[in-house]
Design goal:
By secondary structure, this protein is α/β, with parallel strands linked by helices. It is 24% helix and 19% strand. Helix 3 links the parallel strand 4 and strand 5. Helix 5 crosses helix 6.
Length: 303
Amino acid sequence: MGSPADAAGAPAGQRPALCLPEPTGPCPAGTTSLWLTDTSRPDPWAAEAVARELMVSLWYPAATPEGRPAPYMTAAESELQLASRSITGIPPDALSTVETNAVSNATPAGQQRSLPLVVLSPGFTSPRSTLTALAEDLASHGYVVAGIDHTYESFATAFPDGRVTTCLAREARRRGSGSQEKVAAGRAADVSFVLGELTGAHPAWPGAGLIDPTRMAMAGHSAGGAAAIAAMRADSRILAGIDMDGSTAAPIPDQGMARPFLFLGKQSNYTPGAGIIASPDGKHVKGAVITWERDWALLTSWK
């Protein structure tokens, strides 16, 4: 994707478009958003919230490529994401102008119960939109993808009623009351709830009948990747997982986990089975290195 810095340096009136790479698969991609409410549990971060509300984006093979691409995020989300990261010198709505590829509310394509489902969980403080390029590419190859905004764990999550929630979980972690284990457990619960909403008797999405409930996996980045093992331990419907650069929190039981799993990280910092590798200065060891080495030995399926 083109960078905000590139946009900032363009001549007035000639700001280049920020755009995601085109998907590589043969299918056009469609997308839609769901506003889901889990009334079975309170929100873990907002004491006054008696139910857990989630925004979820779905990407899927579309019947036609015709239509308007969906927005990357709202202008309000863009402003908060940039401000919270102290990124200045570019228009506050810059991220809302990113050009995507998936057509908004396109008609889904596929046969009933034929498409595998992948759940995507973003990094801590990041919105689900940060995984849009990956989701669009998976959809172009015939997957249904559910990207979850874990409410109050992102700098900004916009709801259809006009509310924009902020990252209360970050403040809780600063006070010592928002542990990595709490984040992972909450995300595991979010994932299980979304799976139920998509594959239950009364699904929340009209196209849910395309999903094959016997082929469901989860992938995530950073905190989202760390939550993949927690979610797999909590929900046997998740048959495979991917952790992209996330220190795991939920330990695997001594008997191991016999489902396929992938750790995706920087080879210069870590090679599975080779032991702990320090940073070039010899002073720092990334948390993921320690937990990955621990978990690697307990993964008894493909890895």
